[in-house]
Amino acid sequence: MRVLAAALLTAFAAAPSLAAPPLPPLDMETIMADPDWIGPAVEDAYWGVDGRELYYSLKHHGTPVRDLYRVGANGGVPERLDPRAAANADGTKLVFDRDHRHAAFIRHGDVFLRDLGTGATVQVTRTEATESQPRFSLDGRLLTFRAGNDWFAYAVAGGPAGKAAVLEEKDDPRAKTSDDLEDDQQKLFSTLRGLRADEAAMKAEKDALAAADPGRAPAPFWLGKNVSVADTSLSPDGHWLLVVTQAKDADAGKIADLTHYVTDSGYAEPEATRAYVGRSDPAPQSLRLLDLRTHTSYDLDTKTLPGIGDDPLADLRAKTVAALRKDGKNDRADALAAPKTRPVIVNGEYSPGIVWSDDGHNVAVQLRAIDNKDRWIATVDFGRHTLVSQHRLTDKAWINWDGNDFGWLNDGRTLWYLSEESGFAQLYTRPLGGKATALTSGRFEVDHPVLSPDGATFYVRSNKVAPYSYDIYRVPSTGGELRRVTQYGSLDDFSLSPDGRSLAVLHSSPYVPSQLSTVGVDGGAPRELTDTRKPGYKAREWIAPKIVEVPSSHGAGTIYAKFYGPADAAAAASRPAVIFVHGAGYLQNVHLSYPAYFREQMFHNLLVQRGYVVLDMDYRASKGYGRDWRTAIYRQMGHPELDDLLDGKAWLVKNQGVDSKRVGIYGGSYGGFMTLIALLRSPGEFAAGAALRPVSDWTSYNHEYTSNILNDPQIDPEAYATSSPINYADKLADPLLIEHGLIDDNVLASDSIRLYQRFIELHKKNFWMSLYPMERHGFVHADSWYDEYRRIDELFRERMERSP
To answer: Under DSSP, is residue 792 helix (H, G, I), strand (E, B) or coil?
Structure first.
């Protein structure tokens, strides 16, 4: 595999021709310039209706505009579509009826229907709303789609498109409540009794006409004035609507503000951002099943879910409650009482929350406990109007927010889903009420399952060969061998052709942004369709990162890393070194694909040019290595990761002859947090550190991310105290540069400013801060990128290029 990876890198990293003049050395201005000089990545690739063409988007040079391109699936010169051609192009979200008589797709937010026999295309909608999720009924007669939380149905034989249901977040105005006085009036006056009877008769007649005449607008469902709609999902046959609701008065918590100092108005302007963790828990959600044919509504109770009454935080809760009561804080202690039934949300942020079978006879819902410890996949018993649990995944740390895809096989009676229950994300099937079958298994991950049109085969993305090597694999939906289809080792994404015979593949390499190719589902030589790199970028020779295995001295096994060094390995001896720490925590940066940190990678080339070596590690918590690697940081963020980084430093000293006194560290976001942890918890280990947009206090980060790993701060204050760098500020001894965008609405600049104030009060030295008034979490302006990395470069030069 490593030989193949090296061959791929050599093939992609094209060297300048012998006749070309030598290029000047890399410089900061070049690598931190607008990335338009590199060439755009291929984005949003999708198949045309006939499967003969592919469409994709490229960023337009000098603007954020995306141009639409078209290219033949078998090759040819890509064509940029002008506005008129783009207006007539096939759209996205392509779906077919089961007999392939019609196709539907979305173009500029509207729904289009194509007759595959005649080729005629009908525009179903022309609205300012953005339509999505087109789907045919099993018999092909009905096309449904949504706009916001509203669903529409369109008769394929000829419209019109009408609302499938009308949802009102109000009390039913016809639902009158009576008191004793009103009851007396009804008894006394026959005229009043007659008027009420007339009203009842008119309502019954209206309901009967509406039920018998599909051409009439449906009667509204009155959901209640205290309810808001969070999501909806319509069955393909238009019979059932599943509605996700939550309380309107859910406490949003106090919202933190940031300030824009450089504005068009010339005045400082505030912007609201988000609440802090534990200050606004997700609003509990409920499910309501609507029968659109009988116009009846049923609540689906979650109390039947297995384990829903358990309290996985009971021990922590009891410990914290006891401490609060000892301190006389009884009100706060009372507020921590465990609920009898744990609240849930529909788990639809990173995967579909609700999925219907093709015939509309079954629906599956994925629910997640708000305490992050359980995930259920449940179906609905339409006769009893109840939820039926089909699968429960529980984790004492937290359920992975990623890798929760699920759906139905073509029989409409068998579920498929991804689960981490074996320790690695694998693919399973389970007939309703039956036993699960593992279609894949092993110490590797699978994601992005796609079922073939005939339902016989799953295609998945997997790192079966090595943790850093991703390709497409196929496996029968009834079970069998997991077979490799592509040989890239650097697969980014893929989609299956309409006929199920070909795959559109997005792939890349360390210095080549995502490019488009096609390959048959049985494998073979791919057809390369694009190369979007600019000549000046292609002409440069780049250092191929070498993937190395760093042994853990803490029982974690192997820590994979990318090493950047001189071609002559012996030349690395006595050089200074830099350890780069990737962001996001749960992100994989040690792979064979084009990195999200492409600028940083060029900076690493510049550092090697200046005499350094660089190590980029997938420390514990990184993606791609299984459940135990992911959850090692539960309740102790920064601790296992620091052990891994120190092991990386020891590897550099032992295997590369690096001077242990001249090792620097830097990173952004979670990497900035880890830089703070490294300097504050292991003073003297690193010669200098640069922390970019770092979290310094987890109590001020968002709820969605932080509560998974550290629980709520009210229940688990110890985890926050253990994990927050600001609590170790008194240990600062090594030079530290902090850099932060002032309008960062992810990690707020207040994190860096509060830590800076703490250093001031502790009379610390050798710490600096650089603030960027027009940058958010991810910098977008070349001037800011240049200034940010100029300062990092100067820090390392000043602190590490001296003679040992």
So the answer is: helix
How many C-beta neighbours within 10 Å does residue 443 have?
11
| DSSP E strand stretches across 202-313 | 220-222, 227-234, 240-247, 257-260, 269-272, 285-291, 296-300
Confidence at residue 802, expressed as pLDDT on a 0 to 100 scale = 63
**Cβ-contact 107, 116 below 8 angstroms:** no
Rounded CA separation 689/685 (Å)? 10
Separation of alpha carbons 294 and 207, rounded Å: 9
* CA–CA dist 638, 676 (Å, integer): 9
Per-residue pLDDT, 199: 83
Q: State if pTM tops 0.90.
A: yes
State the DSSP code for 35. G
Helix axes 190-212, 180-188, angle to 10 degrees: 100
Q: Which two tokens stand for residue 369?
A: 């406990």
What kind and span of H or E run contains 496?
strand 491-496
Alpha carbon distance, N-terminus to C-terminus of the chain: 39
- Whether 586 and 622 have beta carbons less than 8 Å apart is answered as yes
CATH tag for 303-528 (out of 2.170.130.10, 2.140.10.30, 3.40.50.1980, 1.10.260.30): 2.140.10.30
In angstroms, rounded to a whole number, what is the distance separating the alpha carbons of residues 392 and 399?
A: 11
Digit-coded pLDDT (tens) for 601-615: 999 999 999 999 999
DSSP string, 352-390: -SEEE-TTSS-EEEEEEETTSSEEEEEEEETTTTEEEEE
Q: Is the dihedral of CA 625, 630, 636, 638 positive or negative?
A: positive
- Per domain, the residue ranges of the chain are 41-164, 180-220, 303-528, 548-800
SS (HEC) of 445-488: CEEEEEECCCCCEEEEEEEEEECCEEEEEEEECCCCCCEECCCC
Short-list 599, 540, 590, 545, CA closest to 567: 545
Amino acid identity of 73? A
**Element containing residue 94 per DSSP (H, E):** strand 92-96
Give CA–CA dist 600/606, Å, rounded: 10
From CA 86, how far away is CA 44, in angstroms rounded?
Answer: 15
Tell me the per-residue pLDDT of 118-132, one tens digit each, with 9 for 90 and over.
Answer: 999 999 999 999 999
Which parts of the chain have pLDDT scores under 70? 1-20, 176-178, 210-216, 251, 802-804
Q: To 10 degrees, the CA torsion angle through 32, 33, 39, 45?
A: 70
Burial (Cβ within 10 Å: 0-12, 13-18, ≥19) of residue 790: middle
pLDDT given for residue 108 in this prediction? 93
d(CA 156, CA 144): 10
Query: Class assignment of domain 548-800?
Result: alpha beta
Listed in sequence order, the DSSP H helices in 479-597 are: 535-538
| CA–CA separation, 638 and 648 (whole Å) | 15
Cβ-based neighbour number of residue 136 at 10 Å:
24
Q: Is 33 exposed, middle or buried (0-12, 13-18, 19+ CB in 10 A)?
A: middle
Tokens of 82: 């002008």
CA pair distance 272, 260, nearest whole angstrom? 11
**What span, in angstroms and rounded, lies between the C-alpha atoms of 553 and 530?**
45
- Around Cβ 577, how many Cβ atoms within 10 Å? 28
* Contact yes or no for 774/782 (Cβ under 8 A): no
What DSSP letter does each residue of 99-163 carry, written as one string? Answer: TSSEEEEEETTEEEEEETTT--EEE----SS-EEEEEE-TTSSEEEEEETTEEEEEETTS---EE
User: Residues near 271 by Cβ (< 8 Å), separated by ≥ 6?
Assistant: 257, 258, 259, 260, 743, 745
- Please state, in angstroms and rounded to a whole number, the distance separating the CA atoms of residues 182 and 29: 82
The token pair at 676 is 């703070």
